[in-house]
């Protein structure tokens, strides 16, 4: 190694990026499947290598320092290049053809665009057709060979789906929303069928808690808009909570929602292109959920 140069650890950089994106390194520990002390050690190691503090306290949370903001830009580029290099050197860099993929709205609005861009750069002769739809419709499309693969929340009644992740669920509401004991809980959810809606109503029924449909939509943006307007509460994954909404986990009037599986559906007509995309997709799911070898 050249004197005076320090190689930044890729795992430590990934922890730094995930912790910042989640707004909490405690959440990053849960996501990465590591202990909070291990994540804190990663952050301290990174600060020692940089020679400056990367985060500072602000209220109850942490924000990036000027050095942290600068490093964040480089960290994202380093991780993207690392992931892209792994993909391009995977032995199938000259793939040609197309792949048809389906994902839930949650992912289409977060990491899917960058994932598609990395795949396209590594395999410029592959055409990608991406579909964002309801889970049941995408699972049926895979069965009909209209999609090569799809991710859905829950198995959608398809026994051949592969569980690739699991996310903890939370009740989410506007910060000023109040739960009134004895009154039906107003629910905001996707139109049926919806795995989140089903989990919410099953949990409420099991707890003997009355509920009512307050708002139904086919759009995730519509769900968040209705919750922000105070029309009711919704059930989504813990790591999907927008910063301006709150987790009602401490409210004793609401039952625990447990977790929901993320299931991969694959067409029986397997192709090398689809297999290569699945590898990248599973890497992204693992990085997001912290599930080792799921």
From TrEMBL:
<dbReference type="InterPro" id="IPR036388">
    <property type="entry name" value="WH-like_DNA-bd_sf"/>
</dbReference>
<comment type="similarity">
    <text>Belongs to the LysR transcriptional regulatory family.</text>
</comment>
<dbReference type="InterPro" id="IPR036390">
    <property type="entry name" value="WH_DNA-bd_sf"/>
</dbReference>
<keyword id="KW-0805">Transcription regulation</keyword>
<keyword id="KW-0238">DNA-binding</keyword>
<protein>
    <submittedName>
        <fullName>LysR family transcriptional regulator</fullName>
    </submittedName>
</protein>
<dbReference type="Pfam" id="PF00126">
    <property type="entry name" value="HTH_1"/>
</dbReference>
<dbReference type="GO" id="GO:0003677">
    <property type="term" value="F:DNA binding"/>
</dbReference>
<dbReference type="Pfam" id="PF03466">
    <property type="entry name" value="LysR_substrate"/>
</dbReference>
<dbReference type="InterPro" id="IPR000847">
    <property type="entry name" value="LysR_HTH_N"/>
</dbReference>
<dbReference type="GO" id="GO:0003700">
    <property type="term" value="F:DNA-binding transcription factor activity"/>
</dbReference>
<feature type="domain" description="HTH lysR-type">
    <location>
        <begin position="8"/>
        <end position="65"/>
    </location>
</feature>
<dbReference type="InterPro" id="IPR050176">
    <property type="entry name" value="LTTR"/>
</dbReference>
<keyword id="KW-0804">Transcription</keyword>
<dbReference type="InterPro" id="IPR005119">
    <property type="entry name" value="LysR_subst-bd"/>
</dbReference>
């Amino acid at each position: 190694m050249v004197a005076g140069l320090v190689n930044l650890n890729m795992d430590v950089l990934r922890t730094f990026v995930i912790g910042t994106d989640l707004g909490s390194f405690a959440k990053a520990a849960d996501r990465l499947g590591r202990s909070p002390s291990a994540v804190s050690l990663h952050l301290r190691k990174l600060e020692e290598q940089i020679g400056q503090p990367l985060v500072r306290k602000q209220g109850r949370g942490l924000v990036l320092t000027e050095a942290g903001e600068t490093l964040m830009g480089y960290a994202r580029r380093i991780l993207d290049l690392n992931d892209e290099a792994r993909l391009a050197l995977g032995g199938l860099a000259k793939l040609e053809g197309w792949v048809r993929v389906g994902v839930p709205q949650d992912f289409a609005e977060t990491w899917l665009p960058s994932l598609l861009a990395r795949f396209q750069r590594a395999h410029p002769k592959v055409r990608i057709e991406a579909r964002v739809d309801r889970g049941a419709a995408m699972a049926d499309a895979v069965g009909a060979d209209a999609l090569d693969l799809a991710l859905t929340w829950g198995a959608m009644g398809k026994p051949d789906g592969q569980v690739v992740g699991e996310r903890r669920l939370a009740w989410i509401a506007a910060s000023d929303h109040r739960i009134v004991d004895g009154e039906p809980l107003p629910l905001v959810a996707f139109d049926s069928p919806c795995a989140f809606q089903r989990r919410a109503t099953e949990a409420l029924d099991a707890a003997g808690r009355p509920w009512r449909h307050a708002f139904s939509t086919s759009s995730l943006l519509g769900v968040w808009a209705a919750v922000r307007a105070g029309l009711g509460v919704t059930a989504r994954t813990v790591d999907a909570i927008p910063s301006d909404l709150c987790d009602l986990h401490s409210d004793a009037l609401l039952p625990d929602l447990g977790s929901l599986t993320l299931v991969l559906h694959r067409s029986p007509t397997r192709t090398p292109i689809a297999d290569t995309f699945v590898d990248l997709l599973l890497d992204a799911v693992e990085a997001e959920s912290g599930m080792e070898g799921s």
